[in-house]
Amino acid sequence: MKKGLQTWLDERFGLSGITDFMTKKTVPLHKHTVWYYTGSAILLFFAIQVVTGFMLILYYKPTLEMANASVARIMTEIPLGWIIRSVHSWASSFMIAFVFVHLLSIWIAKSYRRPRELTWMSGVLLLFISLFFGFTGYLLPWDDLSFSATKVGTDIPRAIPVVGAWVTKLLRGGEDVTGDTLTRFFGIHVCMLPVFLFILLAVHIYLVQKQGMSLPLEAEDNQEKVKEIPFWPNFVFREMIVWLLLIGILFSVAIFFPPSLEKAADVMAPAPEGIKPEWYFLFLFQTLKIFPAHVLFVSGETLAVLLMLFAVVMFFFLPFFDNKPTGTKGKVITLLAYVFILYALIMSVWSLL
Amino acid sequence: MKLKHSLFTRRQFLNGLIGGWVGAFLASLVYPVVKFIFPPYKEPDEVILPLSDFQDMPPNSVKNFAWGSKLGLVKKNDDGTHFAFVGVCTHLDCNVAYMDDQRKFFCACHDGWYDENGINIGGPPPTPLRRLTLVITEEEMIVKKESPEETS
Ligand code: FES
User: Fold this and answer.
1) CB within 8 Å of A273: residues ≥ 6 apart
2) B94 closest CB neighbour out of A173, A180, A271
3) Which residues line ligand 1 (CB under 6 A)?
4) For residues B105 and B114, is the Cβ–Cβ distance under 8 A?
5) What residues of A are in contact with residue B66 (Cβ under 8 Å)?
6) What's the ipTM?
7) CB B82 within 8 A of CB B134
8) A144-148, A300-304, B14-18, B70-74: which has the minimum mean pLDDT?
9) Average pLDDT taken over every residue of chain B
């Protein structure tokens, strides 16, 4: 019976190509293999986001009047609502943390080297989409903190010469953060970003399959045979162990540390003390804070934002700069990854003091 | 095929023509999209407030009003005069608060400070708070969008 269905489907879809590929796919085993697991961990958290997102949307109402109250209702009235929201909020943090780790490990191992430049670039775009997911989702509970953080966040592009004011307006849906912004962020969060993410994810995963797993530099030079295990079922089973562990950790923190909900944002109230963006924006937040109002002829803000944009562009095209992995330039670029980690850590901790 | 005195071939000409049409067609599709995603906004020319709301303000205090979709602040000075500000930080747009004990405006977002006249004196804000002109009549307080220097 099962065979029959399989042939039936295969005749129509031609699936055997894919299943053949999967059974032949192997994963190299070496001392850096652990980083291979970060990719599927991201997928796991993303799947959790999709499912919990589908659930939250059953009760959430994206309007000025209802947003905060509907989240409060999810937290207090809907059976297990608080866990669902907590998991959604925590899984977003976990997902972004793993995206960072994934990218940094690739940067340090230089896995983006030829011919994997496009895999890296699609990955960087996926990072931005993830961050934008986080940024838009943060506003949705519409409380004091998220309102002020969004005011600041959407005002930052204004410092970009020429197009800046336009970008701010585009994000906010007007001059100020209002009910229009909330509705707009909601639409971006649940409708636009998922579409873009799925397209890029498909490209990203296709490229990874097409080119196979990247080997560490040393292993590639040594020319000696690296040990390999079959992807299915050996590697997948190992991944499942990791998933179970991660799900355990995620649910534990979600249950013990649910996110809070402040009172509904008042558009006319002064910004509350201690406004902070999500942790993954803290280092940028602190960078903005320490820039003086004026540096030479430009405003400090413009300079800071332009520097950040420059860094982002360099990051996106990194594989093309890092084209001689074993030379001095390659070493410096690896070092930069550590400098970045250190910088982000110091700035984030500082912002919390 | 290229005619003797022509600058381009017939193929190039037709490709250019079709390309131009397609481009113009796409532009005509993009235009309404761009128009649609920016809602219209106009800053109010003036806002009229009942004077009675502001009569019992003690000196050295502020009171909110709505300046369009932004926070507006009316401040009563020690000499009994009033100032009106847009209560939005010039750094990154947070609403500011008036600290009457310190006689300063404070922005909690990145620790920005302004003195009691709205002049930026500390932290990241690059310019003073925006002043609005305030005209007080028998029963009304009229806030106008020009700054006091412009009107006087
Ligand atoms: S927004 Fe006021 S100091 Fe940054």
Assistant:
1) B108
2) A271
3) A 152; B 89, 91-94, 107, 109-110, 112, 123-125
4) yes
5) 268
6) 0.75
7) yes
8) A300-304
9) 89
Query: C-alpha angle with apex A183: A189 to A313, nearest 5 degrees?
Result: 45
Q: What is the mean pLDDT of residues A110-119?
A: 92
Helix (H, G, I), strand (E, B), or coil: what is residue A175? coil
Amino acid identity of residue B56, one-letter, is D
Residue type, B3: L
Share of chain B above pLDDT 90, in %: 46
For residue A280, pLDDT beyond 80: yes
Comparing C-alpha atoms, which of B68, B100, B98, B73 is closest to residue B86?
B73
B126 alpha carbon – ligand 1 mean position (Å): 10
CA dihedral B84, B86, B91, B96 (to 10 degrees): 80
| Whole-number Å distance between alpha carbons of A34 and A26 | 15
> Encoding tokens for residue B136?
């007080």
Interface contact B107, partner A, CB < 8 A: yes
Using the Cβ of B93 and the Cβ atoms of chain A, whether some distance falls under 8 Å is answered with: yes
pTM of the model: 0.89
Question: How many Cα atoms sit within 13 Å of B17 on the Cβ side?
Answer: 7
CB A182, CB A147: distance < 8 Å: no
Element at B122 (helix H, strand E): strand B120-122
What domains appear along chain A, each with residue ranges and CATH number?
A: 32-267 (1.20.810.10), 281-353 (no CATH)
**pLDDT exceeds 70 at position B151:** no
Pick from A155, A173, A270: CB nearest B108: A270
CA atoms of A83 and A79, how far apart (whole Å): 9
Q: Is residue A273's pLDDT more than 90?
A: no
Q: Which two tokens stand for residue A350?
A: 């500082």
Is residue A233 exposed (0-12), middle (13-18) or buried (19+ Cβ within 10 Å)? exposed
Selection from A175, A159, A165 nearest residue A294 by Cα = A159
Burial of residue A132 (number of CB atoms within 10 Å: 0-12, 13-18, 19+) = middle
Reported confidence tier of residue A161, pLDDT bands at 50, 70, 90: confident
Which positions in chain B touch A173 (Cβ < 8 Å)? 37-39
Q: What is the pLDDT of residue A269?
A: 85
Give the Cβ contact number of residue A46 at 10 Å. 22
